[in-house]
UniProtKB/TrEMBL annotation:
Protein name, per record: Molybdopterin molybdenumtransferase
EC identifiers of the protein: 2.10.1.1
InterPro entries: MoaB/Mog-like_dom_sf (IPR036425), MoaB/Mog_dom (IPR001453), MoCF_biosynth_CS (IPR008284), MoeA-like (IPR038987), MoeA_C_domain_IV (IPR005111), MoeA_C_domain_IV_sf (IPR036688), MoeA_linker/N (IPR005110), MoeA_linker/N_sf (IPR036135)
Family: Belongs to the MoeA family.
Catalytic activity: adenylyl-molybdopterin + molybdate = Mo-molybdopterin + AMP + H(+)
Transmembrane feature ranges: none
Every MoaB/Mog domain range: 182-320
Originating organism: Candidatus Pantoea edessiphila
Gene Ontology terms describing biological process: Mo-molybdopterin cofactor biosynthetic process
Cofactor(s) required for function per UniProt: Mg(2+)
Pathway info: Cofactor biosynthesis; molybdopterin biosynthesis
Amino acid sequence: MKNSIKKLTSFQNARKTMLSHAYPVTNYICLPIVDALGCITSESLISPIDLPSFNSSAMDGYAIKSHDMKMNNLLKVCGDALAGKPFIGNWPNDSAISIMTGAQIPKSCEAVIKQEDVKIINNNIFINKPVILGQNIRLVGEDIKIGDVVIDKGVKLGITELSLIASLGIVSINVVRKLRVAIFSTGDELQYIGKKINFNNKLYDINRFAISLMLKKLGCEVIDFGIIKDNINDIRYVIKEADISSDIVITTGSLSVGKTDFMKTVLEEMGRIIFWKVAIKPGKPFAFGHLDKSWFIGLPGNSVSAIVTFYQLAQPFISKCQGQNYPSIFKKRYKVRTATNLKKSPGFIEFQRGYLVQSDKHEMQVCSTGVQNSHFFSSFTKANCFIILGCEQGNVKAGDWVEVEPFNMLLEK
């Protein structure tokens, strides 16, 4: 057993090797910002304007001149400054202008007094609190200046980033073109979701379904070749077609050493396997290599194994190929105590499913979702994190410290 483990690629080396081969897509497309959600910036975005673009009031209140900032001063209100409708006209000394939040600061205004800080007497205001020069005034360029880098290259565009871009008056942006990923599943036992099934010898193909959803969430263009039977010639044909049409080919199943596991043989014929089998549970039968025109990622057939290896190995590879800052995709790991016993054998790094809760002492702790077999997919619906147990680690007792990694956007609820 120890000798067979030594032949496996370590998890750390597997991820490092994949990332060393991940070259970002260089061609880009220009998209309207309304269509750019989830896309990756292909260049840094430079602000064409100052933000705010004019001096404005931070409060509802009264604009006054420095000449009139004295305590116990009584000032006549001589006009209004509204958002989108600035004050126009003569502004005499010993008077104030009523101003709304966001309204342009009138010329000669040196401060804005909150309406709560004055006493209103007829059409006059009585200043009863000290006034500081420049208070409650938002200055031009206070948030962003012309020429500032507002969004870096390689950033995934979410609602906040796109809203910021819109606030600068930008209507289109250059983004990395979508990565084209071909997927298919292998196995005579698999059936398409929605079709009638004989549960005695068939399974619904949830692997391809789940991987497709995750790829779309990552912003990829998915090319779905469906389910391929356990026939070596069929697998050869589809691998050839997938290689021509995509940047990455992802398969599930047919990577072990059974009589109908043809994938490794086909890959050795049509490309090069860089590594096969990783010291990880769940997910040992994982393969990475390249074909004539595309990269190849072979995921295990068991559903949990497929999800875990896609999350931990394929996701960072894909993110780097998209030009994204891939380390930032994972949430920070930290130590907590486990509330349950955890079963673990040395020799493999394990990514067990767990859920973080608050203990009676108001401390975070993690609980196992239960049995960690690689075909128990229901455990994912209960989990919100991975419990990461090191390669040489054995069984863990309740109360011991363990490392956890909360799910990122790919799996979080």
